[in-house]
Structure formats: C-alpha cells, structure tokens
Design goal:
Blueprint (H helix, E strand, L loop, with lengths): L34 E5 L5 E4 L1 H7 L3 H4 L14 H12 L4 E8 L5 E11 L2 E7 L4 H23 L4 H18 L5 H18 L13 H15 L1 H54 L8 H62 L9 H60 L6 H10 L5 H14 L6 H18 L1
Antiparallel strand pairs: 1-2, 1-5, 3-4, 4-5
Length: about 475
C-alpha cells in the first residue's frame, strides 16, 4: 500500500538527504523475496510478512495499525500517490516504482502492485527487474517534484500541490508512451512478472513438510504448474497487442484511402461524361463510350463502397480486441503474481521465517488466496470476451481481405476504359491510378492478422483452479 494523497510532512518536497548530505544506504533484497502488506480503507497497516519488517526496519508491533506512510520517502512525489489512490478507490489495480524509507533513514526500491482487498487493499512488492524503466520513472519523479515544489512555493495547499504533481506525472507518462496510470499498470505488471519468472523466480519447495500450511504450499505449486502455459502467453499476447495496434492504424488509413479513391473515380467518371458530351456535340453521333463506362463505374464503385463499409467499424473492433488482449495479459500476470506471493509466504511460514500466530498470518494467507481467486475469475471473464470478439473480428478480417483482393481487377479495367476514351491522363484518373497502385497489399496483412487471431489459444482453467482454491481454504480453516 501507499499513503494518502496528502503528505503528512512538508519534507515530501525537499532533498531527502538534506543539503548535500550523502545518499542514504540502500537495503538490498533478492528477486525471490516477494513481500506484501495489507491495509484498511484508510491506509492503516493490518498485516505484513517478515521481509517487509526487515526492509522497513520496524518491528511488527510498530507497524500494525500505523498509517502506511510511515515508510513514505521524500523522493516520492505526492502526485503519484494521489493517482494511485484514485485508481484503487475506483476498483482498479495500481502499480508504481516506489522508493520507501526505512526506520534508520535507509531506503529500498520496489515495484508495488496494489489491488482492492475486502474492505482495504493488498500490496505486493517485488524487486524491480526492468531497471532501465525504473530509472526512467525515477528521473520523471524528480521533475514532478520540481513542479510540486514550485506549486508549494506559490502558497498552494497540500491538495493543490498533489493535484499539480498528478497532472505533471500524467504528462511524464505520456512522454514515456503510456496513455494513463491504468495503462501503465496493465503493461508494467505483465512485463515485470514475465521478467521475474524469466529470472527463475518461482514458489519454493518444502519437501517432507506436513500439515495445513504444507498443503497450502502444495496447492500453490499445483496452480503454478497449471498456469505455466498461460505464462508463456505473456510475450505472445504482447506481440499480438502491438500487431493489433498497428493494423488498427493501417485500417483507418486504408479507409481514408478508399474514400479518396471513390472521389477520384467519381471525378474520372465526370471527365469521361464531359468528353462524351463534347464528341456528341461535334456531331460524332455517339457518346464516345461514356454510357458503357458509367455502367462499369457504378459496379466498381459499389465494390469499393462495400470494402469501405466493411472497414469503417473494423478499426474500432480491432482496437477493442487489442484492449481485450491487454486485459487477458494483465490478468494472467496478476494471477501469477498473487500465486507467487501466496506460495512464497506459505514457504516462509514452513521455514520459520514467519509465524502463524504473529500478525494473523492465516488472515494474510486468506487475503492472498482471495486475491488469487478474484484474479482467476477476472481472467476467466476477460478470456471469454477475447474469445467472442476474436471470432467476430477474425471472420470480418477474412471477408474484407477477400473483397479488397477482388477489387483490383475491376479497378484496373475501369481505368483502362477511361484511357480508351482519352480520359486516362486526366488529373482524376492519374490520382485514382496512384491510389490503386499495385493493388491492396493490406489485404494480405488483414488475412495474416485473422490467422494470428485464430491461432491464439488461451486454455480454460477456472474449474481446476477453483478446486485448488477450495483445498487451500479447507487447509486454512484447520488453522483457525
């Protein structure tokens, strides 16, 4: 968790070390040391594991019941926390690269992921894996703090300072390629979790252990194994998201191109009609082929119009499919993160690093399990949406790809007819020829995208995981 929007001390905008003092020592921890804390709705700490105690430097009794901003570091801008609170109070997950302050003035840097949990919030912290991205955000935080300091110097209230910082952070996010804090969370959680797993971080084993906690650990191991195929989809989904984004942009451009082409063909038709009328007026006794061209033009225009009508909603549907793929990717990563945290904490208890009797460790496992369960439900829902939309979009992509490919011949023939009645060198005909080019290579791209959508397979797992969750809850009930 993080603190409320308003910093509790004015030092939130000052040099954390104080006028030129050497930087505070950094407390190190390993990638596999996943730690967490839970708070009530007001941000007061309810539970935490031993790694949090170690890194913060506070004994458990000094933290439980205390506002989470006890670990607030002055290098962190108030605007960041304002945004985090808005997101989680709206029911979204929120994540951020955060530097926390230890009791001795030291610091430790984390990637925090916060989700609503019951009447409060659950925050999972991991060692940042994408250090270049973390460093870029830390530089951005420095610029945001300068904005907040300038706002404070003008006599702004703490709320106004935080609002100014939030607006500045929004601009920094945009410069870094993110649409919003929610967009950052969806992308960063998936990337950080993928990097954690790639670094070999997994749920520890406890061979020979017995009892309820050992059964919890065994079930978390089983969930980890059952979702391994989903984890492999993180990179594949990321590639699909990028492809969908690119194709949506291309579809909009193609739609505009077809509109231009129709206008150029209409102008060519008018030029052919003008030339035909001129010849008839000269006593040629014929329209110079204008009537036949008109009939052919109407057929070709209908073909192009049909393609344009198919394309118009398709860009939006592809963008929506991109959003569905993003949501599935995020849900997979969040599920895996909560699975890791649950299994790691159970292993800590078995190793004696955390005590079942201290700080309601059973309650912590229950919260972690509930977050995992909610994540499974969320993934199931997002998967269903993705499956339904990909069937719809895939079919429409194939249809419009075929229609586009089928237009090239009739378009070329139409321009050949225009040339036969001396309208081929008109500005409109040359413009139409340029727009047609070598045809529509986009048709192949759309067909390839349809194939990529069809090839994506996301296994269903709700029933199996729910059985595992039920077994975990039975084990926890024995500890009550």
């Amino acid at each position: 968790m993080t603190e409320r929007t308003e910093p509790t001390q004015a030092t939130g905008l000052s040099d954390p070390a104080g006028g030129g003092a050497p930087p505070a020592p950094e407390r190190a921890f390993e990638a596999h040391e996943i730690f967490f804390s839970t708070t009530d709705a007001a941000g007061r700490i309810r539970r935490a594991n031993s790694i949090f105690m170690r890194l913060s430097g506070y004994p458990r009794g000094a933290l439980v019941g205390r506002a989470h901003n006890v670990v607030r570091h002055a290098v962190m801008p108030a605007g960041l926390f304002r945004g985090v609170w808005e997101d989680i109070e709206a029911g979204h997950a929120a994540s951020a690269y955060i530097t926390n302050r230890a009791s001795d003035g030291g610091q430790y840097r984390v990637f925090a992921t916060i989700v609503p949990s019951g009447s409060g919030y659950l925050s999972i912290r991991t060692l940042p894996q994408l250090t270049e991205q973390r460093d870029a955000f830390e530089r951005a935080y420095g610029r945001v703090r300068e904005v907040e300091a300038a706002s404070a110097a003008l006599g702004s209230t703490r709320r106004e300072v935080a609002a100014a910082g939030q607006a500045a952070l929004g601009r920094e996010l945009e410069a870094l390629g993110y649409e919003s804090t929610v967009d950052f969370t969806r992308r960063a959680v998936a990337s950080e979790v993928a990097a954690l797993v790639a670094a070999g971080v997994g749920i520890p084993s406890a061979e020979g252990a017995e009892g309820p906690v050992a059964r919890v650990l065994a079930e978390m191991h089983a969930i980890e194994e059952a979702t391994s195929d989903h984890l492999a989809l993180l990179d594949e989904l990321a590639r699909l998201v990028r492809l969908l984004e690119r194709r949506a942009t291309e579809i909009r451009a193609l739609s505009a191109r077809l509109a231009e082409l129709r206008a150029a063909l209409r102008a060519t038709r008018d030029e052919v009609a003008r030339l035909g009328a001129a010849r008839a007026g000269e006593g040629a006794g014929a329209d110079g082929g204008a009537q036949g061209f008109e009939e052919h033009y109407r057929r070709v225009d209908a073909l192009v119009l049909e393609c344009a009508e198919e394309l118009r909603p398709l860009a939006g549907q592809v963008s929506e499919l991109r959003g569905d793929a993003y949501s599935v990717r995020f849900a997979i990563a969040l599920m895996r993160l909560h699975n890791l945290a649950s299994g790691f904490f159970a292993a800590q208890i078995l190793a004696g690093d955390d005590d079942v009797a201290e700080n309601d460790a059973v309650g912590s496992l229950e919260e972690l399990t509930s977050a995992l369960n909610e994540g499974i439900s969320r993934l199931t829902d997002h998967r269903a949406l993705l499956e339904a939309r990909r069937a719809l979009v895939g079919g429409e992509l194939d249809a419009v790809a075929e229609e586009l490919a089928a237009t090239r011949g009739p378009l070329t023939e139409l321009l050949t007819e225009a040339a036969a009645v001396d309208a081929g060198q008109s500005e409109a005909a040359r413009r139409a020829a340029a727009l047609i080019g070598d045809g529509f290579p986009e048709a192949r791209d759309l067909a390839d995208l349809a194939g990529a959508i069809r090839d994506l397979e996301i296994p269903a797992l709700a029933a199996e995981i729910q059985e595992r969750i039920t077994a975990v809850r039975r084990a926890l009930a024995e500890l009550r």
